[in-house]
């Protein structure tokens, strides 16, 4: 995806290095990061389900690649889906191979009794902590990093990346860690092509988020709402808004509310929009192609697959609009979903041209059918978000620490006790 195009609101960092010696590039990149590491504590946060450890092959590759990295000061794993202590112990053994004298490794047992007891206490104090899932796991683990008071630059990526290599990690971190830059947030992007099927993936981004945000931007412009127009143009500027890879400073991260549903990525972009200036935001091309596990469409079950993902993302955007002065009703949302659908069909045709010239398989009918399903999912989101609904956000750690000053001490104590009892 190497080109020169720049978005109006954010900086785009392209993969121009791919035209040259990639081995030499990686060596130079890691040398720069090792120099930055003399003045900057860099941490990698890995949200991992226990099932990803059990399945092995993909995560084995990721861990092997990370083990070659010399600039990280700490690696923290946000372990989810691990209700049993034996799961936690196995995760400790598995990720323990990453530990070095100059790089600490901690597994945060989010489902463990100590952390859960603290979450229950926060709930009793009126502080919502969300539901179990990636968002809550990331939030808890960020709190642990803040309690330690060491990390300055924090990178986060998923543990199901089939095409992972450590160049991705270095490129994700470098824009924020580089002291010559002003970036506080950097989002990854990439192409999503299945090598085995020779077809485009990333349906929710391609067929829902991109055309839906385009629709909202135009509607806000036509209705004379320039602030919301700029907000949606900012979201449209990201090439892959649902990417799970991003890097930010700890100062920024402390002030972010964290979504605990499938709206995590778009909610994070929105929080960043509210916290920093556009010149402090970048996106970077991480890799020539990115492959990970795929979700089923699940057209008849709002609790699973792409159905749930689209509903959660749409609910976030609809709630955001209502909270910023847009009066939604059935007729308004009906207009939105039909306008979205026409926009999506335009994109489908463009994707077909792109696929054709690149000799990719492309089922025009199935793509149009998926857009039709997403139109229906948008209505499902509206039905669920009527009334006094709020976005599913866990309060920022700045707010939590203000309400409960001992929270960092208690969280650090719980997680270190889990670690010491191994």
What does this protein structure show overall?
By secondary structure, this protein is α/β, with parallel strands linked by helices. It contains 16 helices and twelve strands. Strands 1-11-6-9-5-2-3-4 form an eight-stranded mixed beta sheet, sandwiched between helices. The chain has a two-stranded antiparallel ribbon with strand order 7-8. A two-stranded antiparallel ribbon has the order 10-12. Strand 7 and strand 8 form a beta hairpin. Helix 6 packs across helix 16, helix 12 crosses helix 14 and helix 13 packs antiparallel against helix 14. It is globular. This is Glycosyl transferase.
Q: How many runs of DSSP E, i.e. beta strands?
A: 12
Question: How many whole angstroms does the radius of gyration measure?
Answer: 21 Å
Q: Indicate the percent of residues in helices.
A: 40-55%
> What is the helix/strand order?
EHEHHEHEHHEHEEEHHEHEHEHHHEHH
Summed up, the helix count is: 16
Largest sheet, strands/sense/barrel: 8 strands, mixed
Overall residue-averaged pLDDT value: 93
Q: What distance separates the N and C termini?
A: 46 Å
Beta-strand portion reads: 5-15%
Identify low-pLDDT runs.
none
Q: Outline, from the CA principal axes?
A: globular
Q: Order of strands across the widest beta sheet?
A: 1-11-6-9-5-2-3-4
Chain oligomer state: single chain
SS-based class:
alpha/beta
